[in-house]
Design a protein that fits this description.
By secondary structure, the chain is α/β, with parallel strands linked by helices. The chain contains 13 helices and 10 strands. The protein is 42% helix and 18% strand.
């Protein structure tokens, strides 16, 4: 019903990997689909099935003006022919912004709200009022993380070859929680937090994943945010560019670029034992590069 072909694995070879006897593969989920890629598709897949099961014909979700999630939901609506609404943190829409421009072209109805109203997005009364306003709609949280999203991320873990480590960028915790659910207990699952003061996510991950409560084969590293969510240093951007030229691995500096930069530092520090097999998840988000260029940040 909602089917996209599996993404490829790319092996990275480098003198430092050879020296430390490490094997590194990148799960190229950025190549899952031209427009609905990475963890956004993984999270959407079972939510779309749930939407259809509940007899809903529209999708309402939330995001900032440059949100990968908004972009993916708009693309999914066009691809699978259902109506989408985006509650956009505002208060005004800049329709020259490439993310919002694409969302509108894909048929998404954009509803800008004040930052004050946007803060209500998790509250029961606000969501009840939204459901009344959009009676035929399935409500999906910001970023797409909920119980249904976990099934897609669990499926991702189950699709991977055996490895000693799986590593992914972490924003809301949904991808990491799903990987913990699907990974072998002998595999160590690592999340690289892309935002400041992300320790609170540990409890969010435990709330999403039963295995996260009972297993110790996972961790969230909170010191590699490089300034906070949406922020990045020139060093990080130069690293992203070097990975693109040396390994034909395109990265953005908000999610997967941060994860790869952290992974490279851990490798240089001798974090991984000789002989370790590592799989890093490229969670997509490359559409965000257009937004960074639009804001003249790269």
């Amino acid at each position: 019903m909602y089917s996209i072909s599996e993404s490829p694995l790319q092996q990275i070879t480098s003198p430092i990997l050879l020296k430390q006897n490490l094997t590194l593969h990148i799960k190229r989920d950025d190549l899952l689909h031209p427009l609905i890629s990475g963890n956004k598709w993984r999270k959407l897949k079972y939510n779309l099935i749930s939407m259809r099961t509940q007899g809903k014909s529209e999708l309402v979700t939330f995001g900032g003006a440059f949100s990968n999630h908004i972009h993916a939901c708009a693309a999914a609506g066009k691809e699978f022919n259902f109506k989408t609404h985006g509650i956009i943190r505002g208060p005004e829409l800049d329709l020259n912004n490439p993310t919002l421009q694409f969302a509108q072209q894909a048929g998404m109805h954009l509803h800008p709200v004040t930052r004050l109203e946007y803060r209500e997005r998790h509250k029961h009364d606000y969501l009840t009022a939204l459901q009344t306003r959009f009676p035929h709609a399935y409500l999906l949280p910001e970023g797409g993380t909920n119980e249904a999203a976990l099934f897609g991320c669990k499926e991702l873990a189950e699709s991977l070859p055996h490895s000693d480590y799986i590593i992914c960028p972490t924003g809301s915790g949904g991808t990491l929680a799903g990987l913990i659910e699907g990974a072998s207990p002998n595999t160590h699952v690592m999340g690289i937090a892309v935002l400041k003061q992300a320790e609170y996510l540990i409890n969010e991950i435990k709330a999403l994943s039963k295995k996260a409560n009972s297993q110790t084969n996972w961790q969230l590293l909170c010191d590699y945010h490089d300034g906070g969510y949406g922020r990045f240093s020139q060093h990080l951007w130069q690293f992203c560019e070097s990975m693109r030229t040396a390994h034909l691995l395109p990265l953005e500096p908000i999610y997967s670029g941060k994860m790869m930069y952290a992974l490279w530092q851990l490798i240089e520090q001798g974090f991984f034992a000789s002989g370790s097999k590592i799989v890093a998840i490229h969670t997509g988000g490359l559409q965000g590069l257009d937004g960074l260029r639009y804001r003249q940040l790269i």
